[in-house]
Amino acid sequence: MFGSTSEFVRIKKHEVYYIEGGDVYFLVGECMFRVHRYFFKRESFKFQQMFGGPTSPGKEREGSSPSTAFRLSDITAEDFAHFLWIFYNPMPSAYDASTDVWITILRTACRWSFPEVEALAIKELERKTMTLVDPIVLYENYKDDPSVLALLYAKLCSRDQPLTMEQSMCLGIETSVRVFHARERLRSSSLDRLKSPLPDGVDLADVIQVIDEVWGSDTNCASGG
Fold first, then answer.
1. Which residues contact 123 (CB under 8 A, 6 or more apart)?
2. Left (φ > 0), alpha (ψ -120 to 50) or beta: where does 58 sit?
3. Residue 125's closest CA among 152, 163, 145?
4. pTM exceeds 0.85
5. What DSSP letter does each residue of 91-134 carry, written as one string?
6. What is the Cα–Cα distance from 217 to 219, expressed in whole angstroms?
């Protein structure tokens, strides 16, 4: 797994997430993590596939030791630690993190197919900011994963309340017009002009489909394709 003895020497155990009793090893950069594969297999089909590969007779199971650790090249050690915090939070009733950290967690959950973590991150972003506009503006810096933007836009367009003037100014004219068109396509006429709820039977998949159609290539892959 390691290219040379000197490379092995450079590897450092993560100060928090090198856990005694952990049954899977991940190498992120030069940082080694030892955690429990249960959390990854439970929710992510991508990790189920990663862990489910056949093992030849007499060959050590991949990920079962530092020398066979899974290398994660699409994330930094810091961001991976933020993601692991979701599973190892010592106070599971209080997920207290900054908006930037929640966006990082949301990015990772979308990329690795952790739908429950996605839902938690969006919920916490809504709770912290009272609007998904701020996370959307921040996330515009991360163009590598448009599926996250699609989820945020879907939640924004699903809300009863339309954009305020301040929120429209933050998003810009082009995005605000797209949000308006998406909301109108998703709704029938409403007697309550202050609120415009979604019709019965419209679920998140329907909303994301409209988001993809209105935003085009800017948010494709929203459905995980």
1. none
2. left
3. 152
4. no
5. -TT-----HHHHHHHHHHHHHHT-HHHHHHHHHHHHHHHSSSHH
6. 5
Order the strands of the 12-18 sheet from edge to edge. 12-18, 31-35, 24-28, 70-71
The whole-angstrom separation of Cα 84 and Cα 38 is 12
- Which tens digit of pLDDT belongs to each residue from 112-141? 999 899 889 888 887 876 577 877 777 665
Question: pLDDT tens-digit profile of 31-66?
Answer: 999 999 999 999 999 999 999 866 667 678 889 999
Whole-number CA gyration radius for the chain: 21
Count other Cβ atoms within 10 Å, centred on residue 13. 12
What pairs with residue 28 in β-bridges? 31
Q: Which amino acid is at 107?
A: R
What ranges do the domains of the chain cover? Answer: 1-74, 95-225
Question: What's the rounded mean pLDDT across residues 100-122?
Answer: 89
Give the pLDDT band (50/70/90) at residue 144: low
